[in-house]
Amino acid sequence: MKFTAPAIPDHIVKRKEKLNDEVHHLMSTTIPEKVAHLTQLEHDPRFDLTRLEPPRSSNDATEAEGDEPSAKRKTVDRAMDVIVPNASIKDIYAILKPELKFLLRICLKVSVWIQLLIPRVEDGNNFGVSVQETILEEIGRIQQDIGTYLDQFTRYHLNRTKIISKSIKYPPIGDIYEAIREMDEKEFLNLQIISGELPNYYHSLFDILVKNYAKITCPRSDHHGSMY
């Protein structure tokens, strides 16, 4: 019995054509614009280490706004004094997290585009296919890095919470507050590194797609759109 592949539905063909148009727009417009935009982050004053706020407690703002509290009020407030999230780091998170998620979506879109261009399995003449697979591995590395960065943000908050819980239990120990300050500074430096890597990811993605465009879209010299 001879088996034949089913006909490709029109909506599948149109979906691939739409994806092809979207990736071309990414290569011609979106990715170059992202390289230019993200490169400017190094000049953003919010990434200046000298602007990093020191650890602040929930009572700092209250005492700054109101009158001098009584001795009894101070005792109660000290028991409820909690270190608040670092505003400088929150500001940078608000910049980087959307950018990382956007880059992740681009990587997913480009990966699907390349996967749909991989021809059927055949013996020989597979150099172009190996190029496609190499590019998919590179995109996968970028996706893995993005996941690591996003996990890092969560770990920072969890580890900071552990130190803060000790500051509540042992408020007189100054080294606990110093540990929080050191942790904030380390995270800030990590965020500076991430901001510098973001345009590099886009640049390398653009570079590898442009240089290998012929092999990506036509991995075999005798391949003429055998997918659809």
TrEMBL record:
Q: Which InterPro entries match?
A: PA28_C, PA28_C_sf, Proteasome_activ_PA28, Proteasome_activ_sf
Family note = Belongs to the PA28 family.
Q: Do the record's keywords include Transferase?
A: no
Which keywords describe this protein according to UniProt?
Proteasome
| SUPFAM superfamilies found in the cross-reference section | Proteasome activator (SSF47216)
One cellular component (GO) term of this entry: nucleoplasm
Would I find Ribosomal protein among this entry's keywords?
no
Q: Where is the Proteasome activator PA28 C-terminal domain?
A: 85-224
Function, as annotated: Implicated in immunoproteasome assembly and required for efficient antigen processing. The PA28 activator complex enhances the generation of class I binding peptides by altering the cleavage pattern of the proteasome.
Which GO BP terms, alphabetically? regulation of G1/S transition of mitotic cell cycle; regulation of proteasomal protein catabolic process
Instruction: Identify the domain of life.
Output: Eukaryota
Instruction: Give positions of region: Disordered.
Output: 46-74
Question: Per the database entry, which stretches of residues form a coiled coil?
Answer: none
State a single Gene Ontology molecular function. endopeptidase activator activity
Give the originating organism. Thelohanellus kitauei
Protein name (database record): Proteasome activator complex subunit 3
